[in-house]
Amino acid sequence: MTNAATARPVEVVAAVIVQPDGRFLLAQRPSGKVYAGYWEFPGGKVEPGEPAEQALQRELHEELGILVTRACRWITREYIYPHAHVRLQFFRVLSWEGDLHSREGQAFAWQRASAIDVGPVLPANGPILRGLALPPVLAITDASLRGERELLDRLDVALEHGLRMVMVREKEMAPEGRRLFAAEVLARCRTFGALALINRDEELARELEADGVHLTAAQLSRRSSRPEAAWCGASCHDERELQRAAELGLDYVVLGPVFKTASHPDAVPIGWPRFEAMTRDFPLPVYALGGMTLDHFDVACGAGAHGIAMMRGAWGPSETQSFPSGWSGSGSAVGMR
C-alpha cells in the first residue's frame, strides 16, 4: 500500500460559494464515499492535464448544476489523510447561473464562519473556516499623521459603515500615549464586534487583551514560533517572508506595496502581476497593501487577495464610503431541491 504521506498529492479543486451576505455553502459527503456524512466545500479531483479553473467549472456543474460566471483563486493547502495526500486549490465563487440542486444526493447548508451548525467537517477544512472569519478589509491607524481625535472620530464612522478589522500601528507615539490610544481603539471595536490587533507590541496586545498581534517583517524573520495570540499576521514584501509566515502557521499576511505610497516613497511597488504570481498557491489569506482604496477591492480579489489593507484609504470620506461585509458578487436565488 502506498504511504499517503510520501505519495504525490492528488490535485483537488474546492469552491467557497459565497452569497452577497457572506454566507457560504457546505455539502455533506454521500454514502459510499470515504468520510461519508462529513461536511466539506463542493469540488473534486482535477483530471490529468486539466486546468484548475476548468475542473472547478466541471465539478460544480456535475455536482450542483450551476455554471460559474466569476471565480477567484484564494488559497491552496495540502493535507494528508490516512488514505490520501491531497492538494486543495480553493476558489471563491462569487457569481453563477442556475439554481443550486443536488445531482449526487448530497445535502447542502448555507453557513457563516462565526456560526457553523453542521458537522463533522472534514479536517482539511479547519484552516479554511478560520480564514473565512477574517474580514475583507484591514484598516491601519495613522493617528500620528492626522491626530488622535480625528482618527477616533473617523474610526467611529467607519465602524458604523461596516469596518470590522483594525490594526493599531503608531510607531511615533510614546509608549504610554500608544497604550491609551490603543485602549480607545479596542473599546470602539468591541462595541461593533470588530477585530482589533496591535502592531509589533506583543506585550501591549496581551495587556489590553487585544484580538491579536501583527508582526513586522523584521520580527517575522527572527521568530522561531508563532506568537501566543488568538490572531496573528505579518507584513511581507517578498517570497522568503511569505514562506516564513506560512512555516509559522500565521493566520494571514499583508503583502505590498502594490503601488507607490507616500509613507514608503523609496519602496519598489510590486504591481498586480507580481502580486498574483507571489500569492498563487499560497496557503494563507493575503491582504494587498500599498495605495489601496475601496475601488481596488475587486481587482485585488481577482489577483488572489483575501482583501485589502489600507491606511490613508481607510480614513478618507468615511461619511460616504461603506466597507464590504464579505466578498463582492451576487449569485442566483437559492433554489436547492
- Count of discrete domains: 2
Supply the CATH class of the largest domain.
Alpha Beta
Biggest sheet, open or closed, and with what strands and sense?
8 strands, parallel, barrel
User: In whole angstroms, how far apart are the ends?
Assistant: 40 Å
Low-confidence stretches: 329-337
Query: Percent of residues in helical segments?
Result: 25-40%
Do you know the CATH architecture of the largest domain?
Alpha-Beta Barrel
Specify the CATH homologous superfamily of the largest domain: Aldolase class I
Mean pLDDT: 92
**How many whole angstroms does the radius of gyration measure?**
21 Å
Class based on secondary structure composition and strand pairing: alpha/beta
Number of strands: 15
Q: What is the fold-level CATH name, i.e. the topology of the largest domain?
A: TIM Barrel
Secondary-structure element pattern, one letter each: EEEEHEEEHEHHEHEHEHEHEHEHE
Number of helices: 10
How would you write the strand order of the largest sheet? Answer: 8-9-10-11-12-13-14-15
Topology:
Layout: E1 10-17, E2 24-28, E3 39-40, E4 43-45, H1 52-64, E5 67-80, E6 85-97, E7 108-111, H2 126-132, E8 137-140, H3 143-146, H4 148-160, E9 165-168, H5 175-192, E10 195-199, H6 202-208, E11 212-215, H7 217-222, E12 231-236, H8 239-247, E13 252-255, H9 271-279, E14 286-289, H10 297-302, E15 307-310
Parallel strand pairs: 1-6, 8-9, 8-15, 9-10, 10-11, 11-12, 12-13, 13-14, 14-15
Antiparallel strand pairs: 1-4, 2-3, 2-7, 5-6
Helix pairs in contact: 4-5
